[in-house]
Design brief:
Layout: H1 3-23, E1 34-39, E2 42-47, E3 51-55, E4 59-63, H2 70-73, E5 79-85, H3 88-99, E6 105-114, E7 117-126, E8 131-140, E9 143-152, H4 153-159, H5 161-174
Antiparallel strand pairs: 1-2, 3-4, 4-5, 5-9, 6-7, 7-8, 8-9
Length: about 180
């Protein structure tokens, strides 16, 4: 290879790396922007990589497709629903129901503190369908809420666990 061919190859490689770098392909930091949403009489912040797919007065449902094609996303769809309950009895009934799913579920529960808020966490893993359901039940500012997350086991429990953790913390911390 002569000198000019080597120089051309080096320039081409540098240009290729610059294009990839500027496209954000390797960007793994949490630099997404947030938008404000409301549920019932509360507001909260949500990362823009979640899309609203359904909205009622007392709940809002998102998924993580954000315009991605199936070829890009594969089977890695996660849905997240935030519900505000009108009273403690409905809240407790939903919580008890989440702890006692029938079928092939492995259920684990845990009490957590997120941003100083006591949260009752339930992880349900279906051993046959390879699906995970995570529920977070909590009270903030005298109001009762749940966050309901559904996705394939590997996606929810491993691949996106840090992103889900950040999302749940952001919702709980920003709820007004």
């Amino acid at each position: 290879m002569d000198q000019s061919s080597k120089l051309f190859l080096v320039i081409l490689l540098l240009l290729w790396w610059a294009v990839i770098g500027f496209s954000g392909y390797f960007n793994v930091t949490n630099t997404t922007t947030t938008s404000e949403y409301n549920v019932s009489n509360s507001t909260f912040q949500m990362s823009d990589w979640w899309d609203v797919i359904k909205r009622t007065n007392d709940s809002i449902t998102f998924d993580n497709r954000n315009g991605m094609s199936y070829a890009t996303r594969g089977g890695k769809v996660i849905t997240l629903n935030l519900t505000q309950y009108t009273d403690i009895s409905t809240f407790e009934s939903k919580y008890q129901g989440s702890k006692h799913l029938s079928g092939n579920y492995i259920v684990s529960t845990e009490n957590k503190s997120i941003g100083g808020i006591q949260v009752r966490f339930i992880n349900n893993t279906d051993t046959k369908s390879n699906e995970t359901v995570q529920d977070y039940y909590f009270r903030k500012n005298g109001k009762y809420y749940s966050i309901h997350i559904v996705g394939k086991n590997g996606v929810v429990n491993e691949l996106h666990s840090y992103s889900i953790k950040l999302t749940v913390e952001s919702i709980i911390n920003s709820l007004q």
